[in-house]
Please model this.
Amino acid sequence: MDNNLISVEYDNNRILVSGRELHRGLGIKTDYTEWFPRMCKYGFTEGVDFNFLKFGKVQKEGNRLISRDIIDHQLTIDMAKEICMIQRSEKGKEYRKYFIELEKKWNTPEAVMARALQMANEQLEKIKTENSKLVTINQAQEKQIEVMKPKVSYYDKVMQCKDLMTITMIAKDFGMTAAEMNQVLHQKKVQYKQSGQWFLYSKYQDKGYCSSKTNVYETVSGFGVRTHTYWTQKGRLFIYNLLKEDGILPLIERPDIPA
Model:
């Protein structure tokens, strides 16, 4: 098997490939701009299975340089494998087998451990930065706490707490289960689920909304790694404001529930 069959990128704990490069490698005769929309009809969703890309390319035509926009897409490995299977060709089988081998290497205990440790270090640095910002914010908000009585608001409650929280704890504030809250955030394009874990979309990754804790545990064959996602207080306020736009309030602020 060719170890360099197609170039890959690693982003947000995912393996990604270029739609155009896959189109070219599979030997598809149909123009890419016609072929890709046809593939999407099999049920692929932008933002989940692929991301839209556009970049400029300068081409020489005669004595002139012409700038053109080139359309491409970043595909997840799962989408790329399905597209290869749809082609029903030897090239499709070859590429699909290549993607399966990539996934095996990506999911070895050593690779998972390395990614988990890197993610933990990155999250630690983000938390340190966000904590220093929250100190300043807290000082300003403390002046408003006295004004916003007699009933303590959910915002007051959040600002008085500095601990990381599970989605179960936050969901309970709204009278929901963790599964219900995760689905709400998924429907609002805040997060997506992969390999049993929820991840924020790239739009929200650098906002300091979440932090991860990694636990290493022993297994019969050696060891395993389990990563748990926790929400910061900034993330908790983000969820509060997001749901408030739809009229979804925490129990503490609902007028039908006594203070």
